[in-house]
Design goal:
single chain, 319 residues, 13 helices, catalytic activity
Length: 319
């Protein structure tokens, strides 16, 4: 537990402060790959392979799926996930199970990787290397890959080997003490501090790297961390508590707004969830697959959208 001021005295603060909020690094050369020319949404035709879980990593997949990407998350055979998290952070994401520590499962994973544009994960330090899909390993298998990871404290620096989750990052950076006090720390009303923020930042970095790859080619490493995101959030400032108590719920612009919801029929039943934070007027968010049982999909990519052959269709219609 630290205050914001105490955290600024930690060596990890200096390390993370020297890093950009979204790290994007070109780590290899390959030919340019133009974005798909046909589709109904911004990421139509883009394939994202994931090993995301909980919220921060899974949310990267959700964000990409909402923009039209074919997103497939790989779970290890005996891996477990909490149902409420699966039903929120994994919306729009297809999922499959693979024995990735076995040679046959590893080769299936690599075959999926060869057909992917993006790989994303939020796993403990060292696990991706053990599974053969860290940034260097994965881009050797698939030159031109966008490799996106989310961590607790950054991939390097004094705390790079530590594990952690959302509230840990909020606690060490002083956000929890600011919400309450050192004596009586408090989580914000949302409970989650920056998991989804990191997911949105990771997806944004992936799209920025896709845009670069389309022009100059290359493989890219994208990284975001919970603690770096929390540091950025604290720079936005805090509302005075007296002002908050006087103002919230008083009407007009200060009234709490109910979330926008959507409803869909899924293999798991009727699903109701929140919409995305940003509304796109010309290409509204759309999930090809809203929600399905974990591991229900085959380890295979969907066909990429193609421009209809109008002349061929007319020939068929005319007999």
């Amino acid at each position: 537990m630290r205050t914001v001021e105490e955290f600024t005295g930690e060596p990890v603060f200096d390390y993370l402060a020297s890093r950009p909020l979204i790290e994007i690094e070109k780590i290899g050369d390959s030919d340019p790959e133009p974005l798909p020319a046909w589709g109904t949404h911004p990421l139509s035709g883009i394939r994202a392979l994931g090993m995301g879980h909980v919220i921060a990593g899974a949310g990267i997949g959700r964000s990409l799926a909402s923009l039209g990407a074919d997103v497939l998350n790989v779970w290890r055979v005996m891996e477990w996930e909490q149902d409420p998290l699966l039903a929120t952070a994994n919306v729009g994401v297809r999922s499959t199970r693979l024995p990735v520590r076995e040679p046959a499962g590893r080769e299936q994973l690599y075959e999926l990787l060869r057909g992917a544009d993006i790989f994303y994960a939020n796993r403990r330090p060292g696990l991706l290397t053990e599974l053969g899909v860290d940034a260097d390993q994965a881009t050797r298998v698939r030159p031109g890959l966008i490799h996106v990871t989310a961590s607790a404290f950054g991939e390097g620096g004094p705390w790079g080997a530590r594990v952690g989750f959302d509230q840990v990052a909020g606690t060490v950076t002083g956000m929890v003490a600011a919400e309450g006090s050192l004596a009586e720390p408090q989580l914000p009303p949302t409970s989650i501090i920056n998991d989804y923020l990191v997911a949105w930042l990771g997806a944004t970095g992936a799209m920025a790297a896709l845009a670069r790859r389309a022009v100059e080619g290359g493989s890219y490493r994208v990284h975001v961390s919970l603690t770096r995101a929390a540091m950025w959030a604290t720079t936005l400032g805090y509302f005075d508590w007296d002002y908050v108590r006087r103002t919230v719920g008083t009407g007009g612009d200060h009234e709490l707004v109910d979330p926008q919801l959507f409803t869909s029929l899924t293999p798991l039943g009727i699903y109701q969830g929140v919409t995305e934070n940003v509304t796109l007027s010309r290409t509204p968010h759309h999930y090809m697959n809203v929600l399905s049982p974990r591991g229900a999909d085959q380890p295979a990519w969907l066909p990429r959208p193609r421009r209809p052959d109008v002349s061929a269709m007319l020939k068929i219609l005319r007999g």
